[in-house]
Design brief:
Number of strands: 5
Radius of gyration: 17 Å
Shape: globular
Number of domains: 1
CATH class: Alpha Beta
Number of helices: 8
Length: 206
């Protein structure tokens, strides 16, 4: 199987990480030489917990409700690519781009590493559905209603323009998936729209 590049996008709480891991399992079973699930959120949370001037300044900005500057977001996924890619990996990117200004640099990176036409997967869920999921998953940074609303506002103002741009860009394959289903149903719909065989229940670990 030739290497591919997938970008999974959606509101906080929509299950991007879970679906990325399920897709990774299917691709590996179908013969992908190596599949790398790149998730940017955890690494960035580790970074801003540090003691450097940049980390502390960024932590203060994020804790006050702001977004990290574009250069740090690009640095985050660029560093992962630089240190992890050998030229053979299929990549599933979860957590980027976060703003429209990242779209062009990310496209440049995808082209630089020689990937063919990338695929963007939008896990489409409503704001109410996403906020209920955030409240139920028990993560400290999701518990406060104000924080949930901030994440929805960020998605509407910054992520939706990225999704819209990808949906109209002929350089990308773009699919919408109904995220307001069970994990298994979302996975099955995603595979069907990607033109992949749906594994039997015995082959799928959720």
């Amino acid at each position: 199987m030739d290497k591919r590049f997938y970008i999974i996008m959606g509101r906080s709480g929509c299950g991007k990480g879970t679906q990325a891991e399920l897709l990774k399992n299917v691709l590996e079973k179908q013969g992908a030489e190596k599949v790398l699930h790149v998730t940017t959120g955890g690494g960035f949370r580790d970074f801003i917990s540090g003691t450097s001037h940049t980390a502390m300044a960024c932590r203060e900005l994020v804790n006050s409700g702001g977004l990290s500057p574009e250069f740090l977001a690009i640095w985050n996924w660029s560093t992962i690519f630089i240190t992890s890619l050998t030229g053979k990996e299929t990549v599933i990117l979860d957590g980027a781009p976060r703003r429209i200004d990242e779209v062009a640099p990310l496209h440049g990176a995808i082209a630089f590493y020689g990937y063919p036409k990338p695929t963007v997967i939008h896990l489409n869920v409503s704001e109410t559905w996403a906020m209920d999921k955030l409240a139920s998953r028990g993560r400290e940074d999701d518990n406060e209603r104000e924080e949930q609303e901030r994440k929805m506002k960020w998605f509407n103002e910054d992520m939706l323009p990225c999704i819209d741009a990808y949906s109209r860009d002929p350089r990308y394959d773009f699919i919408h998936v109904n995220g307001e289903q069970t994990v298994e149903e979302v996975h099955a719909e995603m595979l069907a729209k990607l033109g992949m065989a749906i594994p039997s229940p015995m082959e799928t670990t959720v």
